Amino acid sequence: MAVSPINKTIADVTDRIIKRSEKSRASYLSLMDSQRPTASARSRLTDGNLAHASAACPIHDKNAMLGAEWPNIGIVTAYNDMLSAHQPYEKYPDIIRAAARKVGATAQVAGGVPAMCDGVTQGQDGMELSLFSRDTIALSTAVALSHSTFDAALYLGICDKIVPGLLIAAVRFGWLPGIFVPAGPMPSGLPNPEKQRIRQLYAAGEVGRDALLKAESESYHTAGTCTFYGTANSNQMMMEMMGLHIPGAAFVPPGTNLRTALTEAAAQQAAAISHMKGEAAYTPISKVIDERSIVNAVVGLMATGGSTNNALHIPAIARAAGILINWSDFQDIADVTPLLCKIYPNGPSDVNHFHAAGGMGFVVRELLASGLVHNDVTTVAGDGGLERYCEEPTMNGETLTWKAAPEESLNEDVLRTKDNPMAKDGGLKLIDCPIGRGIIKISAVKEENRKVSAPAAVFDSQHAVKNAFEKGELHRDVVIVVRFQGPQANGMPELHGLSPILGLLQDKGFKVALITDGRMSGASGKFPAIIHMGPEALAGGPIASIQDGDLISLDANAGTLTVQPDDFLSRPRATREKDPGIGLGREMFAVFRNVAEEAEKGGGIFGIMDA
């Protein structure tokens, strides 16, 4: 296939990230070099250490580990059977161990990490632990790998904060080769537009909870990842774009021979790229994740209309590798990246329809042909750069093989070429305004809803918004401002529960918008929402100076937002009456809230870590 020279804007953005990150990246790489293995990881252990590490292994694996000749693969798993996406992982360790033995390797479950479901906690107090679960997962992964008996690692995780948390830790253990192993989406259920319709009818009081529960249960109905294009599926896209998957693994359904074969291939490839297979084969994650692969992930996010949550996660992942990226970089990339996909919430179709239409192989090929992504990157797939990810896996009898992705979309309502895109840009806008810096995703917002000028209605919680709606106080043109929702305030919960309310008001003909220092779900986007606004209110951000009745004017296409009166910034900042972070374990995360960085830096606790 033809790979075009890199687009000038993409090259310029990459170069400025490299220059901006020069010192921190050099420090990171120095640390990785200091940990570079020269023999098996087990050779550093005492006899007592090794006896403990191998005590429970089957006799064949124990002999191999004591002999220190086979590479040993550590499995870090986010399995639990409450998350539909992660339920298939229950049987993966046995599959991986058996596959590893076939190529002269052993595999052990190094540890488990927590995996909460945002779908369960939406609108509940537990959502205030969601973003910080990412950093908890990173810490838990570090504990799992601290046994230092592993020559490579497999990371089993899919959903919202789980993949970013695993990857932050994988990058800090970047001398280890590592591959991310997905489980695939559930079969398509109730069509997404119908689910959205029922949610809005329920918000309006026109149907009861029984109808809502029926619709939700028909949408989320079996094992596998939720099929809308939220954060979980955006994560899988990014793992392909960053070269951390076996090519084409993202959206193959669970419970199929192809899925099992891909899991086996991941185990065997992890062994093949360990240092024990020679210098030429050795592919540590610190070599896979660099400035180019981070840019490729952002391009993929824009080209597919992915989740706004990854505007938090990508900077956090990058910073773990000593790479400094900001939302101005996101904006410049979005400006030159066409939107190739319409997957719910950007359109009615789900990821199964996307996969059937050509999927990630088609997207990667179109981006390479446009010169919008770097091909000269290192991936876990071996030689060939990102071009390897233009292929899709298939079974030839009992053998896993790859073929070229379709050259033409099989459904242009879902997936299109670079020459006939859904939109000319990626649909993400940086709002740099008197209130601060935030982002808005407009790819799912109709053109007629992208300009709003209306009085502000200011709230300190999403529950207060719901109460005002139920009292009929919001049935008008309105810009709803929800503050004290940032990382330091309450862990930056998603405000997805506001989506049916604002969508209903918009459908009634009112001009509505949302401004918040909190998050919205990756499944949101029907109405204009300026999110992740920083500095956050608790840190004294200007969002705390807005009052009820202030005239707010948004032009999402232009990326502008103004507030009248002009002197609103001279007012005292509002203060929060009380800290709500008590109960359901939230008080245990006060230490996280106290040190959390602003959203544009990832909203996490780690920052740029010293070498």
UniProtKB/TrEMBL annotation:
Which GO terms of the cellular component aspect does the record hold? cytosol
PROSITE patterns registered for this protein in UniProt: ILVD_EDD_1, ILVD_EDD_2
Pathway entry: Carbohydrate metabolism; Entner-Doudoroff pathway
Enumerate the InterPro entries for this protein: 6-phosphgluc_deHydtase (IPR004786), Dihydro-acid_dehy_C (IPR042096), DiOHA_6PGluconate_deHydtase_CS (IPR020558), ILV_EDD_C (IPR056740), ILV_EDD_N (IPR000581), IlvD/EDD_N (IPR037237)
Q: Keyword Iron on this protein?
A: yes
**Dihydroxy-acid/6-phosphogluconate dehydratase C-terminal domain: residues covered:** 413-602
The superkingdom listed in its UniProt entry is Bacteria
Q: Which UniProt keywords apply?
A: 4Fe-4S, Carbohydrate metabolism, Gluconate utilization, Iron, Iron-sulfur, Lyase, Metal-binding
What EC number(s) would the UniProt record show? 4.2.1.12
Question: Which cofactors go with this protein?
Answer: [4Fe-4S] cluster
This protein's record includes keyword Lyase = yes
According to UniProt, the reaction catalysed is: 6-phospho-D-gluconate = 2-dehydro-3-deoxy-6-phospho-D-gluconate + H2O
One Pfam family recorded for the sequence: ILV_EDD_C
Q: Which residues bind [4Fe-4S] cluster?
A: C159, C226
Q: Which top-level enzyme class is recorded in the Swiss-Prot or TrEMBL entry?
A: lyase
Annotated GO MF terms: 4 iron, 4 sulfur cluster binding; metal ion binding; phosphogluconate dehydratase activity
Q: State the similarity comment.
A: Belongs to the IlvD/Edd family.
| Function per UniProt | Catalyzes the dehydration of 6-phospho-D-gluconate to 2-dehydro-3-deoxy-6-phospho-D-gluconate.
Tell me the protein's name: Phosphogluconate dehydratase
* Organism annotation: Hirschia baltica (strain ATCC 49814 / DSM 5838 / IFAM 1418)
